[in-house]
């Protein structure tokens, strides 16, 4: 597979001789969602970013950010994260031979994401405070010059993430009428707006946000103060779109539908774009792309909300057939 940076180098900030730190990110599937599309009366597509190497869209930006950090002579990378950025920064840091420091807000990270960061050797520090406080601390350390900050406030991250817009247009052969995605920190909304703008046409954005940002079960968007709020909301205005505040029950319902109707197991936050489309149905016949940002194994413990518990059964075909009917 051609690395994302090599596919789009002419649209990215790396120079011709800069190193490329890659794990084979990008080129993720754009899958038709026929059952859900029929229910909504639209042509629905799912951009499956869970197929990236560490299981989330963050890898698109991380390949660029860590490559640029290496080119600049950074001694380490640092991030504040509710999970996906941590896993990605740790993996790409390891790939580059750079230590990775992860600041996680106390009690706000899914175990699957934390396991990834720990497995590849990141130094994981639990901050006594919120995500926003952890990010402030990470920024302050990065300003000392030894650590490269690889959160989405690093513009190199957004440059990598914008490539998903290029892929969608390549795969569809056109710009979709509507692009729906989760809204946590707002960086991905901003990145998609950047990518589509470079191609000359914005879809209408629907950004699915948790109604209770500080407490939502969708940990990947549990961000009280979006770092990119102003730019993300400007993108919504420019596209004629909107942010949709979603109750956790609506996110869970969309999450369950994706799994049971389309066979895609994403983490809860990834379903926020689909939930936004359900809450604000586009005109019938619209071409709609929903971005599923992360794999369900990132937050496997949340499955108890959508799946029945396993049932014990004797190793007997009649007993098995009976249990399967229930």
Draw up the topology in text.
Blueprint lengths: L3 H4 L22 E3 L1 H7 L2 E6 L9 H14 L4 E5 L3 H13 L3 E6 L5 H9 L3 E5 L3 H12 L4 E3 L5 H7 L1 H10 L5 E5 L4 H13 L4 E7 L18 H11 L2 E5 L1 H15 L9 H8 L7 E6 L24 H9 L1
Parallel strand pairs: 2-10, 3-4, 3-6, 4-5, 7-8, 7-10, 8-9
Antiparallel strand pairs: 1-2
Helix pairs in contact: 3-4, 3-7, 4-5, 7-9, 8-9, 9-10, 11-12
Write up what this structure looks like:
The protein has helices at residues 4-7, 34-40, 58-71, 84-96, 111-119, 131-142, 155-161, 163-172, 187-199, 229-239, 248-262, 272-279, 317-325, and strands at residues 30-32, 43-48, 76-80, 100-105, 123-127, 147-149, 178-182, 204-210, 242-246, 287-292. By secondary structure, it is an alpha/beta fold. It folds into 2 domains: 4-56 and 156-305, Rossmann fold (3-Layer(aba) Sandwich), CATH 3.40.50; 58-154, 3-Layer(aba) Sandwich (Rossmann fold). The strands form 2 sheets. It has a 6-stranded mixed β-sheet with strand order 1-2-10-7-8-9, sandwiched between helices. Strand 3, helix 4 (84-96) and strand 4 form a beta-alpha-beta unit. The longest helix is centred in the last third of the chain and has 15 residues, at 248-262. The radius of gyration is 20 Å and the shape is globular.
